[in-house]
TrEMBL record:
InterPro entries: Band_41_domain (IPR019749), FERM/acyl-CoA-bd_prot_sf (IPR014352), FERM_2 (IPR035963), FERM_central (IPR019748), FERM_domain (IPR000299), IRS_PTB (IPR002404), MyTH4_dom (IPR000857), MyTH4_dom_sf (IPR038185). This is Uncharacterized protein. PROSITE patterns: FERM_3, MYTH4. It is found in: Cytoplasm. Gene3D superfamilies: 1.20.80.10, MyTH4 domain, Phosphatidylinositol 3-kinase Catalytic Subunit, Chain A, domain 1, Pleckstrin-homology domain (PH domain)/Phosphotyrosine-binding domain (PTB). Keywords: Actin-binding, ATP-binding, Cytoplasm, Motor protein, Nucleotide-binding, Repeat.
Length: 624
């Protein structure tokens, strides 16, 4: 693929861009590629096809099978009332419309088929004599094995009662055939997730189709003598077992098929199926393109690239089809050696928007699909592509600053807190006392260069790299140069390591009331046509209204006084504040970042509600 080389000695890197024109945001540096750890469980590229198997049992066992399932006779052939009642129960379908099969050991250790299951549950009954393999490799005469002809009705008999399910089942089977190469289609239709979306989307929404999809995939893998077709069929099986589990009736059949299958993916499919069956919820969206490309590149381990604020610790983290957002946050925190993952979150950056993935219980790939699909739907001018039309980057950042105390977790301070607070300081969002400014500039210099003082001679030309613009203008260049050099030469700074300087920088800022804030430039609507430029800050204290020029806090609304908030249109944000004694007051702001304020307020309120001793939150906090 352009701009990238994928080594078969490692797990598939899932942070790549969807198309050649959009890969720059995802292309890893050579150092990042070299740092990948080889995947021990990668899928082998060479596989032997499943051997052809005979299709039918003896006609005698087929003729008498239904009687054996329905009745149990006495030695002299007379049925007792109890036995008749049992027989009547055995003839009724199972909960999902299936007939149960009698316990029976397979005659051989060869690949397992759905022949016996099809006898009782398929809409078309299997042929009673062996099938014949055609020159094209397809088998004719048996509904339970590979074919190159589309089906005209669903495989499962009980789906015939629902016209919608029947139609969608047939459409899904044709998509399976196209993906496997068993039905002609344009090559462009096989790119991205177009086919996999058609196969799995309806099954994820309609429980009645889940078993149908599994039966269709098993059918196309049974006695399939076409190597390429079989490989692609196993790719679909691998994807399916990471999305949803079958019904209790089909579970034994699928389990036997996977256990007895002669394919390198079968064992991994069993592991994925076990993981899915143990979940309290299942996936809601079809496979993300990262999952699809992973298995298409013959890998079974998925890695996604995560960006970190220090821009040095960026790395690939292993994810799975059943990993939640919260699970990934814990995995990242553990690998980085953080004391806790509380307050951290994943952020999706695409199309100049920063979107927080705040629902920790969401599956990671579901959250990605949802956000990307929403963005795609909002694009009207461009023709919708089946690969993500928007390049994205995934960041792991500190989101909630309620429990942050500089020095308590040095790793978090040096990788996250320092690098997240520094840009806000340099943009001039903080009201910085003059006596702190020179110290903060000196600590930045120490954190960047350590013992190397050669760049200090250029400090006069680079003041804007270390101080906000408004502070630079408040004094002469020479005054700032002397003040910064004097602060830097103090023993308590010259003895510091780079990391210690970062922590010291944070400890100074920690004394300020706006430390750890997220800032939003806005205009406060004071009348029908009058507005006033302000800064809105959201932090552990609540919402702060700050003068845009002086950076002085004008008003603080603690969470206990915030009654609700709402966004209207693309630039209006309404905030309702007050208490029982003062009554409610509605504030109106103009800002394009209302969606971020909404998300952050929701996150802080939820966090406060989990800490009842804080006394800050109110159970009435809600969006309007």
């Amino acid at each position: 693929m352009p701009h990238e080389r994928v080594s078969r000695g490692s797990g598939y890197q899932g942070a790549r861009s969807p198309s050649p024109n959009q890969r720059q945001a995802y292309t890893l540096s050579s150092n990042s590629r070299a740092a990948r750890t080889p995947s021990p469980n990668r899928r082998k590229s060479a596989r032997s096809p499943s051997p052809t198997r005979k299709a039918a049992n003896s006609s005698k066992s087929q003729v008498h099978r239904s009687e054996a399932m329905s009745f149990s006779t006495t030695r002299n052939g007379v049925h007792s009332p109890t036995q008749i009642r049992k027989a009547e129960r055995s003839k009724s379908p199972a909960r999902n419309g299936f007939h149960s099969l009698p316990a029976r050991k397979p005659k051989s250790k060869g690949p397992y088929t759905l022949e016996r299951f099809a006898m009782m549950n398929f809409s078309v009954k299997p042929a009673k004599r062996p099938t014949v393999a055609t020159k094209s490799g397809s088998n004719t005469g048996s509904i339970w094995q590979h074919t190159t002809e589309p089906i005209q009705k669903p495989l499962l008999q009980h789906l015939l009662r629902d016209q919608q399910l029947s139609s969608r089942a047939c459409s899904a089977f044709k998509a399976i055939m196209k993906y496997m190469g068993d039905y002609p289609t344009k090559k462009t239709n096989l790119q991205g997730t177009q086919m996999t979306d058609k196969i799995f989307t309806d099954a994820l929404r309609l429980d009645g189709l889940k078993d149908e999809i599994y039966c269709q995939i098993i059918k196309q893998l049974t006695n399939n003598t076409l190597n390429v077709s079989e490989e692609r069929g196993w790719e679909l099986m691998w994807l399916a077992t990471g999305l949803f589990s079958p019904s209790d009736t089909l579970q034994p059949e699928l389990g036997k098929f996977l256990r007895l299958a002669h394919h390198t993916l079968a064992e991994d499919c069993q592991r994925r199926l076990l993981a899915v069956s143990q979940l309290t919820q299942q996936r809601k969206y079809p496979p993300h393109w990262v999952e699809v490309e992973t298995i298409q590149h013959h890998y079974t381990q998925i890695f996604h690239f995560i960006f970190l604020p220090d821009d040095k610790s960026n790395a690939s983290f292993q994810v799975s089809s059943t990993m939640t957002v919260g699970d990934l946050c814990k995995s990242i925190a553990n690998r980085l050696g953080l004391k806790s993952n509380k307050g951290f979150g994943l952020f999706l950056i695409m199309a100049s928007r920063i979107i927080a993935m705040h629902e920790e219980s969401d599956f990671f790939f579901d959250a990605l699909r949802r956000q990307i699909d929403w963005e795609q739907e909002g694009i009207k001018s461009a023709k919708k592509s089946d690969m993500p039309v928007l390049a994205y980057q995934m960041f792991f950042l500190r989101k909630i600053w309620t429990d942050v105390v500089p020095g308590d977790d040095v790793q978090a301070d040096t990788v996250f807190h320092y690098h997240q607070e520094l840009p806000k300081f340099l943009r001039g969002y903080y009201s910085c006392p003059p006596e702190d400014a020179a110290k903060l500039a000196a600590l930045q210099f120490r954190a960047r260069y350590g013992n190397d003082k050669t760049e200090m001679q250029n400090i006069a030309k680079r003041l804007s790299d270390f101080l906000p613009e408004d502070l630079v203008k408040s004094r002469s260049v020479d005054d700032w140069k002397r003040a910064i050099i004097s602060a830097y030469n103090q023993p308590w700074i010259t003895s510091m390591t780079k990391d210690a300087a970062k922590v010291a920088f944070l400890k100074i800022m920690y004394r300020w009331p706006t430390f750890g804030s997220s800032f939003f430039e806005a205009a406060k609507v004071t009348g029908s046509d009058n507005t006033e430029d302000v800064l809105l800050a959201i932090n552990k204290h609540g919402i702060l209204i700050i003068d845009a020029q002086s950076k002085e806090v004008q008003k603080t609304f603690p969470y206990s006084e915030i009654q609700g908030w709402a966004g209207s249109g693309q630039s209006d944000f309404f905030l309702t504040v007050g208490n029982e004694s003062k009554g409610a007051m509605k504030l109106h702001f103009k800002t394009k970042l209302g969606y971020k304020m909404d998300d952050l307020l929701t996150s802080y309120v939820r966090y406060m509600q989990k800490r009842p001793s804080s006394g800050q939150h109110s159970n009435n906090n809600k969006t309007l």
